[in-house]
Design goal:
Blueprint: H1 4-8, H2 20-30, H3 42-57, H4 72-84, H5 105-117, E1 123-127, H6 131-134, H7 141-145, E2 150-155, E3 167-170, E4 179-182, E5 188-191, H8 204-211, H9 218-230, H10 235-245, E6 278-283, H11 296-300, E7 314-316, H12 318-323, E8 331-336, E9 339-347, E10 355-360, E11 389-391, E12 394-399, E13 423-425, H13 426-431, E14 460-465, H14 474-482, H15 490-494, E15 503-509, E16 517-523, E17 542-544, E18 550-552, H16 562-565, E19 573-574, H17 585-588, E20 603-604, H18 610-622, H19 635-639, E21 645-649, H20 656-661, E22 666-667, E23 679-682, E24 684-686
Parallel strand pairs: 1-2, 2-3, 6-10, 7-9, 13-24, 14-23
Antiparallel strand pairs: 4-5, 6-11, 7-10, 8-9, 8-12, 14-21, 15-16, 17-18, 19-20, 22-23
Helix pairs in contact: 2-3, 2-4
Length: 708
């Protein structure tokens, strides 16, 4: 199923789930691994050969990874490939498992259900889980739970499982509790609470301690454990250092030497079910497995590829949808092994043919005020023998449906021959370093009717690197949390009234029914030097600051929306309704006290996190110095996992932003309009394998289109 990893890759091969192991075996054989299996079809032979040759060419500097949803055999193939390519000890390190008790969890759960059905379980304590909702459908956990005489549940919410238990204990959020954890390499970290429990909740650690007859608090339990492990001598210094650094030094697991069994990948994995059409179960890109279904921020965050909000859908390729006679938004019955669910169709570019993708996490019946009743529950089709994919699914159209709440066509920038997200290749960079600048006309500095702004102090600017951005949307959520941006709900999203100050546009290039290229482009307010919004505001609510920011004076705004109409980037948001709750006391705790909570009738937009700028300026003034480069970190910049966003004083020749703006990859979005934005972009550079793709002509990779 299309993913952010595939969208970021220079090459991606979209195949049905059951074909992944066949492709993996073919690559392994071509790289010298003993991996018997069927030959791939002709359409994929060239791809397999090129990938295998590339891996062999880069022995010791390559890396093969198997997805977590793949069967054990595919993981064995990945290990065997890394071993054959000399990657072990170079790009791959083996350690002891981080998991304390490595067992087959599905089989363990199956055994528990059998004992419950047989009446062998008198008391069942469920800590943090929701098996009534997400356990494999064939286990029928809810019916088995009814035969347990005493049922206790610890959880953050009164969810589907808690509703069937005799006792529900409120769990402390992880930000309210003491604890410890292990990183992937075994490094231990001490978890410190940021706030006392709001509702008297208890952590899983405290509950287990109570069950063991100790009843100690989380702090005492964690501290005593590490005191026993470290010893009394020097413990206070060790404890303070661990809390200060956030991790315990020298706790990483040592590397282990392993040997790949010759027959590790000799046995093929049988695929459950029979039939042409396959189903792939995936965790939802925003609410995961459903545990965050009651989070309005995540519900309203557009999915990275589909741009759907507040819902899941039945994802098909364009070819499969056409073959089945299905249209966008049609309501269909999805049937697998006599189990059915109903959902709406979404034709997804780049989706493999003859495959149905169903995202888990929706269809909650007791998620809370926000998450209950959204979407359909794909867990109802998911069984213990086929947790991630199966054959034999069928679709039957029931009716034409209403549109899903999606943002794909909201605030769309029209190209009209302009390159919006500029993309090139490494070959282009080498042959013509300035090719990005030649993709569109850039007005000269003197080509303006405006009087240039003069800055005696700072001139803040931002650069977004499209080469690093993977479209995850974390910047959107960070901005929402930092700037008190309200959630508007599904109905308002359909009316194009979402309030996000930074959106992530997604473009496709190529055949949408094949393997199109994908480009993601975050778009905040551009903070234009020649700002079109400023000249049309009748009350001077939008104005230029002494440091180059396009400021919004909320108490002047009368809601004419002229500024939004005149903005070519479509980054301004208008409060149509009273979205923010300023009365409920507990909700006030979620607001950033340094940012005004806006009311209806006001236009708002990205401010470059001006509250953070002011905080740094005040601190620098106290110390009688200038603001240091990197001292101000905007919310979107702080959260970006790829480091795609840089911010600073563009008048400082030594600042990161200033140097990036001098780079040949740097360009202004819609720069030909002469708005002279402070936010600019670094073009995306692809590095295609010449055996899989013909060399791209200069400038040809800039024409992207939306999915629908």
């Amino acid at each position: 199923s299309p993913s952010l990893t595939g969208a970021t890759a220079d090459h991606s091969l979209h195949v049905a789930p059951s074909q992944v192991e066949t492709i993996a075996r073919a690559i392994a054989r071509a790289a010298g691994v003993n991996a018997p299996g069927p030959e791939v079809d002709g359409a994929h032979q060239a791809w397999v050969a090129a990938v295998a040759a590339d891996l062999v060419k880069h022995r010791g500097t390559s890396l093969v990874i198997a997805g977590e949803t793949q069967p054990a055999t595919v993981h064995a193939l990945a290990h065997a490939l890394n071993d054959a390519l000399g990657n072990v000890g170079a790009t791959v390190t083996y350690t002891a498992p981080v998991e304390a008790d490595s067992i087959d969890h599905v089989e363990s759960l199956r055994t528990l259900v059998r004992d419950m059905e047989a009446g062998n379980v008198n008391t069942l304590i469920i800590i943090g889980g929701n098996p009534v909702y997400n356990a494999p459908a064939d286990l029928n956990f809810a019916a088995a739970l009814d035969k347990v005489s005493h049922r206790v549940h610890l959880g953050l919410y009164v969810d589907e499982t808690a509703a069937l238990c005799h006792w529900h204990l409120p769990e402390a959020h992880y930000l309210e509790a003491w604890g410890d954890a292990l990183a992937f390499d075994g490094t231990a970290a001490i978890i410190q609470p940021l706030i006392l429990p709001l509702y008297g909740g208890k952590s899983a650690l405290e509950m287990i301690s109570a069950l063991a007859g100790k009843g100690a608090g989380g702090y005492d339990l964690v501290r005593q454990y590490w005191k026993d492990r470290h010893g009394e001598t020097g413990f206070e210094a060790f404890w303070r250092a661990a809390l200060s650094k956030g991790f315990v030094e020298a706790t990483a697991l040592p590397a282990k030497t392993v040997t790949i069994r010759p027959d590790a990948a000799s046995q093929a994995t049988p695929v459950a079910g029979e039939g042409e059409l396959e189903v792939s179960f995936r965790l939802d890109p925003t609410i995961g497995d459903g545990r965050w279904a009651n989070n309005g921020w995540l519900q309203e965050l557009p999915k990275p590829l589909t741009k759907i909000t507040w819902d899941n859908a039945v994802l098909l390729s364009l070819n499969t949808a056409e073959h089945l006679g299905l249209q966008l938004f049609d309501v269909v019955e999805v049937k697998l092994n006599d189990r059915t669910v109903k959902g709406q169709v979404w034709a997804q570019p780049g989706h493999p043919d003859n495959t149905v993708t169903l995202h888990l996490g929706y269809g909650r019946t007791r998620a809370g005020q926000v998450g209950t009743g959204m979407g359909f529950n794909a867990y109802l089709l998911r069984t213990s023998d086929a947790p991630w994919f199966a054959k034999g699914v069928t679709l039957r159209k029931i009716s034409s449906g209403s549109q899903l709440a999606r943002t794909e066509l909201h605030q769309v920038l029209t190209q009209e021959g302009r390159p919006l997200a500029r993309v090139g290749t490494l070959q282009q960079c080498q042959e013509e370093p300035d090719f990005v600048q030649h993709m569109a006309h850039a007005p000269s500095d003197d080509m303006t009717m405006f009087t240039p702004h003069k800055y005696d102090g700072y001139a803040w600017g931002m650069v977004i690197d499209l080469n690093a951005c993977n479209g995850c949307g974390a910047c959107t959520i960070a901005c929402q949390a930092e700037n008190n941006i309200p959630v508007v709900g599904k109905e308002q999203v359909i009316k194009q009234r979402e309030m996000h100050w930074i959106r992530v546009d997604r473009y496709y290039k190529g055949d949408p029914a094949g393997n199109p290229e994908v480009v993601h482009q975050p778009v905040p307010c551009m903070q234009c030097e020649n700002a079109p919004c400023e000249v049309v505001c009748p009350v001077a609510a939008t104005m230029h600051s002494e440091e180059g920011l396009n400021d919004m004076v909320y108490n002047r705004c009368v809601g004419t929306r002229y500024c939004s109409n005149n903005c070519p980037y479509k980054v301004r948001r208008f409060n149509f309704l009273e979205y923010s709750d300023t009365k409920t006391p507990v909700k006030q705790m979620a607001y950033n006290p340094d940012v005004t909570v806006r009311t209806r009738g006001v236009m708002e937009k990205c401010t470059y996190c001006v509250q953070r700028i002011n905080l740094a300026r005040i601190q620098a003034k106290k110390e009688n110095r200038k603001v240091r480069d990197g001292e101000i970190v905007t919310a979107c910049q702080a959260v970006c996992p790829a480091g795609a966003i840089s911010f600073g004083d563009q008048h400082d020749p030594e600042s990161v932003v200033s140097k990036l703006k001098q780079d040949s990859r740097n360009y202004a979005l819609l720069g030909d309009l002469n708005t002279r934005p402070r936010t600019t972009y670094m073009a995306k550079i692809r590095n295609p394998n010449p055996e899989l793709e013909a060399p791209t002509t200069h400038g040809s990779s800039t024409e992207q289109t939306h999915g629908h």
